[in-house]
Design brief:
Blueprint (H helix, E strand, L loop, with lengths): L3 E6 L8 H17 L1 E6 L11 H18 L6 E5 L5 H10 L4 H5 L2 H10 L6 H15 L5 E3 L5 H18 L7 E3 L34 H9 L17 H14 L3 H7 L5 H27 L2 H30 L7
Parallel strand pairs: 1-2, 2-3, 4-5
The protein binds adenosine-5'-triphosphate and L-tryptophanamide.
Adenosine-5'-triphosphate (ATP) binds next to helix 1.
Length: 334
């Protein structure tokens, strides 16, 4: 049996962005050929931001369509929706009961997001978010979790919780490792190249969306913030804007940053941006078209997700029974 991987993505926006794609999703596609892959649309995590029911429904479907469009193959991978498998909440609660308050309070994603919305508008779910994430992961006993750099701390917590549970209650969980690709671990916002490209950015002007039209994305890349000087060279400190575009170009074409730099020796930023825009939009065009085609047949999409949930539930159900048993919870009489 091949090694298992699991990852998740939130349906919090109409479209995934280039950071999600290059930082995490392209690895999802690669890993499904060599691993037993479980990929989850974490709709319950999306409840930690303000909910518009009609919009959330649409975004969950759009997330599934995009994952299929980038090449997640339901024959190779188990693709499912988190809320379809109730064991996620069940194990999430168990982890809330073995996580220290101070430990949860140290999570930087919580600190950042709660600071942005203020104490009164921050929901408790945002605080317990990492424990639900640990449950998403550990239910499936994966060895690897492909994510972007921003998730490193959550994976560390997940490892701690697995080890803590195993030490107290018996060897139940595989302790997983994060799988983070260095070069694309953090794609930056094109307008603010010192901040990560994010679905919840204040302005979408620096965010390249997979479902946006090629024209819109070309415009965004051409107006990307660049740095003083005119050499196309990689220097994250002095030239964060150009370095980000170089990382993007390199990730999409598979070429090294060095060879791209030498192509643009003596040319200006304008030529370079034009070519970045071209390779990005060429790569995204088929993804957008395929995703839109999937969205035309909602019932076929839901059927695929049902099959995924059935497969996921079989694995998750076993783990949660073992966990309950190890904790001394009595099984319900058959
Ligand atoms: P938000 O910023 O609103 O929290 P997000 O854009 O980070 O959302 P998620 O659903 O949280 O999106 O992330 C999905 C995956 O994409 C995760 O593995 C995350 O690490 C990765 N990811 C997100 N943004 C980037 C980025 N800018 N560069 C590289 N990877 C990223
Ligand atoms: N917290 C993650 C999304 C997420 C996830 C997961 C990632 C929820 N559950 C399980 C990997 C494995 C994020 O914000 N990107």
């Amino acid at each position: 049996m091949s090694k298992r991987v699991l990852s998740g993505i939130q349906p919090t926006h109409d479209s995934f962005h280039l950071g999600n794609y290059l930082g995490a999703l392209t690895q999802w596609v690669e890993l499904q050929s060599t691993h037993d892959a479980y990929y989850c649309i974490v709709d319950l995590h999306a409840l930690t931001i303000e909910v518009d029911p009609a919009l959330l429904r649409k975004r969950i479907l759009a997330s599934a369509a995009q994952l299929l469009a980038i090449g997640i193959d339901p024959k190779k991978s188990t693709l499912f929706i988190q809320s379809h498998v109730p064991a996620h909440n069940q194990l999430g609660w168990v982890f809330e009961c073995i996580t220290g308050f101070g430990e949860a309070n140290r999570m930087t994603q919580f600190k950042d997001k709660s600071q942005k919305s203020g104490t009164d508008r921050t929901v408790v779910g945002l605080f317990t978010y990492p424990m639900l994430q640990a449950a998403d992961i550990l239910l499936y006993q994966p060895e690897l979790v492909p994510v972007g750099e921003d998730q490193r701390q959550h994976i560390e917590l997940t490892r701690d919780l697995a080890q803590r549970f195993n030490a107290r209650f018996g060897d139940v969980f595989t302790v997983p490792g994060a799988h983070i690709l260095k070069s694309t671990a953090k794609i930056m916002d094109l307008q603010e190249p010192t901040a990560k490209m994010s679905k919840s950015a204040a302005s979408m002007a620096g965010v390249i969306e997979l479902l946006d039209t090629p024209e819109a994305n070309i415009k965004k890349i051409k107006s990307a913030v660049t740095d003083t000087g005119r050499e196309v060279t990689f220097d994250e400190k002095e030239k964060p804007g150009i370095s980000n575009l170089l990382s993007i170009f390199s990730a999409i074409t598979g070429r090294t940053v060095k060879s791209i730099e030498s192509d643009y020796a003596g040319k200006g930023y304008g030529d370079f941006k034009k070519d970045v825009a071209e390779v990005v939009t060429e790569a995204l065009k088929p993804i957008r078209e395929t995703a839109l085609a999937y969205l035309k047949d909602e019932s076929a999409l839901l059927e695929l997700l049902r099959e995924g949930a059935d497969r996921a539930e079989a694995v998750a159900g076993q783990t949660i029974s073992t966990v309950y048993n190890s904790l001394g919870l009595l099984p319900r009489k058959k």
